[in-house]
Amino acid sequence: MRLALRTTAVTGAAACAAAAMLLPAVPAAQAADGAAPRVSCAATLSAPTREAAFGEAARATGAPEPLLKAVAYMLSRWDDHQGRPSSDGGYGVFDLSDDTPVTGDGAGKGRAAGTRSQIAAAAELTGLPADALRAQPNANICGGAALLASYHDGGGDLGSWRDAVARFGAKHEFVRQVYQTLRAGESRVTADGQTVTLAADESVAVPPQAKAAAPGTDCPSGLDCELIPAPYAKHVPADPDNTTRYGNHDLADRTGAGGPKLDYIVIHDTEGYYDPSVRLVQDPTYLAWNYTIRSADGHVAQHLDAKDVGWHAGNWYVNMHAIGIEHEGFAGGAGWYTESMYQTSAALVKHLAAKYGIPLDRAHVIGHDQVPGTILGATKSMHWDPGPYWDWDHYFELLGAPIGGGRAATTRVAPGDVVEVRTGYHDNPQPLTGCAAASPPSPECVAGAGTNFVPLRQSPSETAPLAADPGWKPTGEAGTTYVSDISARVVSGHKLVVAQVQGDWLGVWWAGALAWLRNPADRPVVIPASAKTVTVKAGAAAPAAVYGRAYPEAPAYDGTGIPVQAISPLEYTVPAGQAYAVSDDDVVTDYYRATTFDGSAPGDRTDLRGQDRYYQLWYAHRQVFVRAAEVDLHDARPVAVVSTTPPVVRGVAKVGRTLTASPGAWTPSPKRVRYQWLRDGAEIRGATGRTYHVKGRDRGARLSVRVTASARGYESGVATSAATPPVQPARRGRPARPTHPTASPWRSEPRQIDWSRR
User: Deepest of 142, 151, 236, 547, by most Cβ within 10 A of its Cβ?
Assistant: First the structure.
């Protein structure tokens, strides 16, 4: 989650008791009407671990312990966030809100009479002060449990609690998420080192999905999705139909044959709360995006049909080809994103990607911060959301497309390799400053908070200046730790071409210069990757230009009535000697014309196609374009299956004995393993099984085995075991030992020697 602190893991009753001494005691209190509180939290407050606190809260309230864990997991993944609010203003393990609830239709029609905030209701039920419910995890757990139990109408089984869960989480999809979590189980170590486990229970009945998505919405079946349309309207109703003053999107045919192709899903945050955001999208003088997702329960509001073009990315070419999804929250770190919102967003993106053929990778499911400027000087004004606190690693796991494809991070990197960065999140704190100023009403940045990036330096040293980005800072200054300064940030999923290796440091090409990424042996952050690369055209006199959009060449406009759209290079280039990874080598070269309300201007509502070709690149922090005519395209080198533990020969190297090969460990797990036995490094003809019977001709030689591991989509990996000592002759005058390695007349257990350890 967004603002989870990274602290030293502390376990055990003694450690928790010590931590409790640092918190103010929670005083006993009375309910608002002067009566004794309905729930006693004494045992929960003194519980030594978070796991134990859930058990005590269940006993105190009568709410089933597994249900409490499942509800809390869907809100916070059991992190307490040290008293900082979530992106919807909730606090603690149960994301208890300080705001009185609004009506559940998402239209912002007001608040129900007599309602109280969750914090206020929990305080009345437990007698705990509101400050304790916000800041102390055990108090929050007791308050959340008491609130959930107060919604329960009776019944003993888990199914009888569905209405209570719905009231706690506001929407049906949240109930489904909770009961799916109960059925599947979860276990994790929280950001502050607490281990919490929810055992899987296959007997749990998950509420059925709705038979179809809500009318008018483009959502996966059963997702909690409503239609709140963005208006296509004139700014002044009396204006003529051919007015250019209209909003807040454009009509198109992106899902049919006549419109731009859908290629991107852009992840935004609202920089505001849910209700004001959906009111803005209903303003014809503002701008529109496709979806808004609420933090508290993952509720989705759809505003635009995928066929139409929203004005959300700040780049018309990207807008032409993108679906925009806003998530309730603040890029500067005001709060953490709930698990319910992550899961709902991932379900929506998987549906859209499958329906419209959008690749599930970090070059096509992108942050707003990856959208390039359009013309020289525009880059410095582009947005930087969803910011450093969006957990890309977790998000792509939910999408079923984990960053790095599940491969292990490595330090086995050479110049010319393409690598993909996987930063981690909770275990990846990076220093940040300026959160309150850059993203109000965010609080100041918090030391130790997890982040989604690693920094680049101008030389291989932790004290070297941060890398520069001439588009973000045209005057050439080095990057900074200011929260919105993306000059030197490599975000999880980014691909880079390695130019040099010096110890723990990798020199990579970045924004037209060499920058340095630390890849420590004890925590490597790069994964072997496969991608085509580009270099400037051989023999070219000048660097290749970099563009923020792939517009058609001027002759393509002839006879269309559409004004030629200038193709303006950005502040960047691909100089000679540098290489960049290609993220898409089949870019659509087009321009969708839309200037009048009724589409009557010459060429309006036409998608003009060009013949000029572009490639999309990983370049600096963003996705950019180069003209194919200005660069050479180089084929991708397949990623190989990698040996993580070498093969081993087991047994006694003596004539008449049998040796057995262990294949070692590989990443990813191979589908096929082949063996080739070697005598003094040379292949032994026909010896291709897992076992080898040592023969007389092997006497005095050293034997080893070469293992070849294969997996679909990967280059085969090869690894060879350590060699045995010289093969000994069979003993004379004594019975030959059995050749089977599991039997021996001399000892009850065979002596198996791992020669790789000698």
Answer: 142
